[in-house]
Model the fold of this input.
Amino acid sequence: MRMSLKVSQPPPHGGRLVNAVVDREEGARMAAGCPAYDIRPTIDPRTGAPIRNAYREVMSIAYGFFSPLDGFMTRNEAESVMRDRRLLSGWLFPFPIIFDVDGEELRGLGVKEGDRLLLRLKGRPFAVIDVEEVWRFDPRDVADRTFGTPERNPEVVRRRFDEKHPGWLMYRSMTGTAVGGRVHVINEPRLREPYGRFWYPPSASRLEFGRRGWRTVIAHQTRNVPHTGHEHLMKEAAFLGDIEPCNGILVNAIIGAKRLGDFVDEAILEGHEAVSRFGYIRPGRHLVTMTLWDMRYGNPLESLLHGIIRQNMGCTHHMFGRDHAAVGDYYDPYATQTLWSKGIPSYGLPAPPYDVDRGLKIRPVNIQEFWYCPVCGEIAYSESCGHRDKAERFSGSFVRGLIAEGIEPPPIIFRPEVYQVIVKWWRRFNYPFVNKRYLETKEAELEVELDPMEVTTR
Amino acid sequence: MTYKIAIVLDKARMEKVRSKGVQVKDLYGGYLKVIELEVPDELAKRILAEFPRARIDARGFIEETPIAFKRELFDSVVRMGAGPAAIEDAMRPEKLARIKELASKEDEYLPPPN
Ligand SMILES: [Zn+2]
Done:
């Protein structure tokens, strides 16, 4: 067989995109006569702050971001994922996706396996789940086995996870009763401003790539307002295509519960948008999008989910940097690059995700670091610049510190138009970062609006 | 291990340190002027313990301390120079109490730039 050196758009993970969004008429029929359950946030037991809302998982499943996953996991599937990072169908998947509920309320509703449950959001019909299994679990045990331990995963885990790790805390704070089964969105939500224009579910992003004539597209993961270090990462990594640099750069922001002190989601999206709106990357080569997900900060595991999401969106390449989706020093800083160059046997990956059966078809671009070098007089790549001892490294916390003190960051590390986006949302929220008030408002409003819908419930 | 902490200098702060013999460092091709202080391990631990949001970044700098702390620290540096004594001075109990009170308000509101 002749193999072309040209790269083309990969198929969705698992072969086909999940589309579990039905129209309202069909939805009302599906939900008729079902008991109703209100989706509620997972709460940090120490502070009372909302740290996760499972509605975001319903959205990411139903709109195909997590294909081939088409529902919340049963016990067997969650066990399989924690053991081998495989769905029961054999396809790679990093995290147990668990719909935990108030067990007592569920019993009160008389829900049993084989039933269908209507899920309400903001008091309105939103989705249904076909109850395949109601199962119980020990949240602390699931949290530990989801992320690993230094003893069991010595290749990449440096220290034991605890409640300071936001992802571990999410699993640790679950109720211990779960409902597994397929989900459908029955009342398609509208995304609130400014989210709507960044909403490109995989089927829509694939169409958009086609419309723009993008054959090769490199994905950039973000949970940050971009500084010029991020911008250089995007531009330089995009040079790795096939017979030419990648045609497109897809920015995909993870939108959901945030940590105190992070930038607000609105500024993250519009900050990235400003990069091309003001021409630092030509708009025709740049697309800013989002995925609804309460980030687990699982470094290599998170990178695997990122690979799945962006392959589903139609990307051919994915850039991975140092400390990818990490927090603190739980993981080795290069754990993600270890996964994407050698694999991590203790996570069930004896080879990289693209070299195992039922693995991924997206190509990693492992990149180290960009810094400002006063000798080169430019933003330089750490493996190219020979002045390591003079390098001025980027630090997100340093930039946040400047902003908090009311000092506009220098243009060489932060584009003035991107800074103006931060100031815009700062005026709106009276604060430039996530604080407790922002988290509470966000949990009350979420990213979506739902129209009223008549459903006869039991 | 020794860490560092940086105080960024705007025009007003530059005026105040002029002629004090404090070493000012250029960052990012001279766009930013900073004073860098060395922070011995024990003192770094105290700073991290006093301010729960403070953390050490990938460069080994202590970041995300309250703005009020940086303000006190700058005043101490003007009087005492850029050594550990200035940090000790900014961490005196009566100053810490005031810093923490201001810091709790910093979590609620920060004035946007004009
Ligand atoms: Zn250099």
In short: The two ends of chain A are 59 Å apart (CA to CA). The first strand of chain A starts at residue 36 and ends at 38. The pocket of zinc ion is lined by residues A 373, 375-376, 380, 385, 387 (CB under 6 Å).
